Amino acid sequence: MAISICFSLLLIFLSQFPSSQAEPFIGVNYGQVADNLPPPSETAKLLQTTSIQKVRLYGADPAIIKALAGTGVGIVIGAANGDLPSLAADPNAASQWISTNVLPFYPASKIILITVGNEVLLSTDPNLANQLLPAMQNVQKALEAASLGGKIKVSTVHAMSVLGVSEPPSSGSFASGYQAGLKGVLQFLSDTGSPFAVNPYPFFAYQSDPRPETLAFCLFQPNAGRPDHNTGITYMNMFDAQVDAVHSALKSMGFEKVEIVVAETGWASRGDPNEVGPSVDNAKAYNGNLIAHLRSMVGTPLMPGKSVDTYIFALYDENLKTGPSSERAFGLFKTDHSMAYDVGLAKSSSGSSSSNSSSQTPSGKVTSTGWCVPKKGATDEQLQSSIDWACGQGIDCGPIQPGGACFEPNNVASHAAFAMNMYFQKSPKRNTDCDFSQTATITSQNPSYNSCVYPGGGGGGAGSAGVMNKYVNSDKLESKKNGAVEPKVYSSLSFLLIIMSLILHVYVMGQ
């Protein structure tokens, strides 16, 4: 009995820590408007070589759903806009839809969400918007009748244009023309614990404002930031600004607690000559830095400490899509399974999936006479932006992921020091390579500490007591984004181990 109690306590404790192998917040859209896609079975194998944990389908292709059985990959399936009239009018149609598209595959295929319609509110058919909520309700009732209520969520996907105001983020609100229709949908999501799914695209934001400073802001690159004068927050990237604008819009209608899911976001790798923004370098920068940002678990300024579930668009290019060339160029992978460009999704290269990078001390050849570290006075927002950017440039940021040699102390300044220096050591070592929008400087004091060794400057080794003291000054406290301080979890672990030891001792003595 005592052993069982101890084991249960240990499982409860360990459940509070993110698995080094799991990144449940990273998903991908699997579009099928193409005639050259590999078989679903091959795609399932490809996904298992990556840290992608979720896949969104725009329909409910049985071959794909079946191919993903047993992989543990979460699956989002969709009811098409054309299905809404029947789903809304006839509960039996909804039951039949569930019987056809869910019951033959679940739970072997891990279906987690059904999206009823896609960007329905933008439809030119006014009846479709009126049919949205009844269709969602009937699908929910069909799930409940099949004893799947709560196990599989029901939602719908919205374009960012449902917002009438998005800047500054704290003033985000839904366009007045959509508010009446959204009220019922939001109440449904709140009642069922389902997410509000939305498609933020910094790519399109840049196309509407093609200035260099806008590009850096959209690509998570070092920039001056954009202040929200209502909150005093300076936003360092467009993704956070857009997501927080959605959060504010939900809050303005009384649904602050409804979770947000990013159903689509991405960047085109090529386009027509008259298109602004598409390029391999920009696509790699956006998607790579977005993934690094999600892995940091910093969240957004208004929703800190948790990464929003994000589905990147898209798994493959779709060669039959209409419109400008960029519409056919969002793929992360080529149809021969090779990467279109490397954004760190391969398990062997992912910071949180690598068997080595997250647990080993960083190493590197001594190539310079100094180390790159943050300047005094740099804000957490600026430093987090530098972390996202640097980790998106191909450096190994595994050591500052949970379990890594440099993860503790778990604060932005410490992690930024590591990321800045790793980028600097891999660069030509010009002074401009340690600039980070004037938030970094080169120091002659070795910032290494404990088992965390910083390459460069004449030899790594144990840290001198100089520059890192301001980062490693409280191993027992963690600075939170709002300035509060909370105890580190290691005290909880020690307490749990003591309790387990006492229970085992009593058990043994009683035998």
TrEMBL record:
This is glucan endo-1,3-beta-D-glucosidase. Residues 370-454 form the X8 domain. Residues 360-370 have a biased composition (Polar residues). It is found in: Secreted. One of its GO terms (molecular function) is glucan endo-1,3-beta-D-glucosidase activity. PANTHER family: GLUCAN ENDO-1,3-BETA-GLUCOSIDASE BG1-RELATED-RELATED. It comes from Raphanus sativus (Radish). The keyword Magnesium does not apply. GO terms for cellular component: extracellular region. The keyword rRNA processing does not apply. Residues 348-359 have a biased composition (Low complexity).
